[in-house]
Write a structure and sequence with these properties.
This protein is an alpha+beta fold and 260 residues long. It has helices spanning 6-19, 35-51, 66-72, 123-129, 151-156, 204-216, and strands at residues 56-62, 78-83, 87-88, 91-94, 103-112, 130-140, 161-166, 182-187, 190-196, 227-229, 237-238, 244-249, 253-259. A hairpin with a 3-residue loop joins strand 12 (244-249) and strand 13 (253-259). The relative contact order is 0.22.
């Protein structure tokens, strides 16, 4: 049995971030990279960032909508982490020169008010522990060549996380049925799509519950004060210099990312 050196592959990915260059998928170099090893590489990658002085702002899910799964050719969700250094405001300039080949996508974002953990976590428990739900835009930047990867690859790469713009309006969880909250995503004034929260595997709160159940496998949980990106209801769009991407939410206001 091959022993996979998780720290080696974490450094491989962090170097790609630091040098702003694409690298070959790990799955192309290790046949059948197991999901547990992919998450162990992700842990080592996030530990590198924390060792370099970053901290955790929260966690994220990726690939929680059919739109995203079809766009990337992957058929299950993935879980990752949001470094504090990656968090931006609701209207933010994104320096694309710091990134490799960035894309933007709208996000439903949960602001967690109480610690939350448990292998049987439910959507209702997520709503009880949530202070507010706001809109967001995630900037994703796969470190892999041509933004192509397998599920283990993208997990190892901390689910392509790069930057996260977090809305400043939003609602308390009981104020609306999140499955009906609508998002329209436009790039340079052209509407790219409209979807509701139901696009996130039927219910954004259930997505967060899935994340909590996943974390429980390693005796982890969400902490009060963290944010959670529940996923993108629509596909991602390229972000270049001068691109203006706007996510307009029926209940959360607007979030705007401008590539500079
Ligand atoms: O947040 C996401 O949905 C990204 C997950 C990874 C897939 C991608 O890079 O599009
Ligand atoms: Mg995302």
């Amino acid at each position: 049995m091959t022993v996979i050196d998780h720290r080696h592959w974490a450094r491989y990915l962090q170097l790609a971030v630091d040098e702003r260059r694409e690298v070959q998928g790990i799955g192309a170099q290790i046949d059948g990279l197991p999901l547990d090893d992919a998450y162990a590489i992700q842990d080592a990658l996030v530990a590198e960032k924390m060792f370099a002085g970053d901290s955790l702002a929260g966690a994220k899910l990726g690939l929680t909508s059919k739109a995203k799964q079809e766009q990337m050719g992957v058929d299950e969700p993935a879980y990752g982490w949001v470094p504090a250094s990656s968090v931006l405001g609701a209207h933010a300039d994104v320096d694309v020169c710091e990134l490799i080949h960035p894309r933007v996508e709208p996000e439903f974002v949960f602001l967690i008010g109480d610690d939350l953990s448990g292998a049987d976590c439910t959507a209702d428990q997520v709503l009880d522990a949530t202070e507010r739900v706001v809109g967001g835009i995630e900037v994703i930047d796969s470190r892999y060549e041509a933004f192509k990867f397998t599920l283990p690859d993208v997990i190892a790469d901390n689910t392509s996380a790069a930057r996260a713009l977090i809305g400043d309006q939003g609602i308390a969880p009981g104020d609306a049925d999140l499955t009906t909250v609508e998002c329209t995503f436009s790039v340079d004034g052209e509407v790219k799509g409209t979807a509701t929260g139901a696009a996130l595997l039927g219910d954004p709160a259930e997505c967060v519950a899935m994340l909590v159940r996943h974390l429980a496998r390693k005796d982890r949980g969400l902490r009060a004060g963290w944010l959670v990106l529940a996923g993108a209801p629509l596909g991602a769009e390229p972000l270049g210099v001068g691109t203006v991407a706007t996510a307009s939410y029926s209940h959360f206001g607007d979030v705007v990312a401008r590539g500079v």
